[in-house]
Amino acid sequence: MNNMTRITLTAPLSGPLVPIERVPDPVFAQKMVGDGISIDPLDQCLRAPCDGQIVQLHAAGHAVTVATPQGIEVLMHIGLDTVGLKGSGFTPKVKAGDAVKTGDALIEFDADYVATHAKSLLTQIVITNSERVAVFAPRSGAVTAGRDVILELTLAGAQAEAVTESVKTVTSEAIVIPNATGLHARPAAVLANLAKKFKAEIRIQKGDQAVNAKSVVAIMGLEIGYGDKVTLTAKGDDADAAVETLTPLLWEGLGDEGCKPAPAPASVEVSPSAAPAPRPRSEDPNLLLGVAASPGLAVGEVFQIRHQEIQVNETAEGNPQQERDRLDEAINQANVQLEALQASLHGQRAADKAAIFAAH
Question: Are the C-beta atoms of residues 47 and 106 closer than 8 Å to each other?
Fold first, then answer.
């Protein structure tokens, strides 16, 4: 059921609902792709959760996006790390541009094959442009595909877009993508969330196609694969900072698991004038300057560990044997005091029991 301010999504699969925060993948659990819900599927056909149009179907057949008439983008991602299956086990029933109705078949999949070759069968249903939704109302329990409601969305009011007077434009050097499976949902979500931190308009270009780098669906629609060359273009006051921040993260793989940057000369084609300055070195032998750690994505709490040196003042006055005798004497005194304390506690406990029996 859709209207201008509220959208109801129907279960695309049968099975128990799982809160998105409990999905064992930090990018989905931290809602970097978008807010939504997950289903542990009991059937093998992904269906349309609403009326709309197919705006993106991943080449590996494991993910599809339906856009509602209001422009809300509903991404459905079957399983976790299923992009690595490269289409095995998935049979798409639609293509980009198709109009669909609630309950229409989108992707058939072999649940046994996917379950034994991927990290999980959990299927995520997320709103990639969550900023357009004011209220998410997820349901719970077990649902039946095509019948039960899983998520109710209340749309945010229309907001006037800010007019950017600055026309400063910055373009990155060509960047070679090191991700073995390209920019699939996880790295696309990381890139989009990082891009949203900048006010500048940011676009990522592959060949003659350029899309909004703040949209997960748009990035996935480019079907950027391993070894593809892309460029970033930013327009706005913080364009420089946007390109300088995002470019190295792209060639490092955006935290994708098992991703290794391509060799430096091929990763980013840097002109001599843009070569990085030499790393600063400390002249103090007791001072180490910070260096970049292994590239990756960390999600969770940060704890700082400090080592404290305990200063012990030695006041030995005699020879080692005298000091050993003093230690033995101190230990004996401590044992006597402990025995006295234990006896006192036993006596008090016996007196308490006697008082209780006397009272009864």
Answer: yes
